[in-house]
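Can anyone check this?
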Amino acid sequence: MNYFELYNLPETFILDDKALKNTYYKLSREYHPDFYANEPQEKQQEILQLSTQNTNAYRTLSDPDLRMQYILKEHGMLEEGGKNELPGEFLMEMMEINEELMELEFDFDADKLHEIGEQTSGLVAQLDNDILPVLQRYTELHGFTREEALEQVKTYYLKKKYLLRIQETLSKFATRS
């Protein structure tokens, strides 16, 4: 069962955290294995699966990045094996940042590290600002416009994932200095 269906929620990128948590707790009580200890083994196994599904659904839906990844995968938008394409302009910009990071490997400069950190934080903030209207109106979209929105979200997701890897590299530099 789809996680949104399990929680009786519309598929959306922006969830009501309180409603999500309330449903999680309700299902946790309903599917708690201890309440089924005297049931046949088959029923106990079914409840254990439902309990596990509830936990996995909550972990996924409560995290905005995992929720986004889940929705994209549900729509077949993310290819396994990293064959997801990013716009060439973005990749050129990232190539420049990666070259600057390589230069830091050989000639560390704290100011340059800070500058690259500010640049990537600014890019993430801009991405977040640009995608927010799409995320907010997603539930209202249908058909072709929904597919377009999913494509925009996919591009956002892949760009942000790339930038987060760069930020991880920057944090490794910061711990060395």
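Reply from J.R.: I decoded it. The mean pLDDT is 93.
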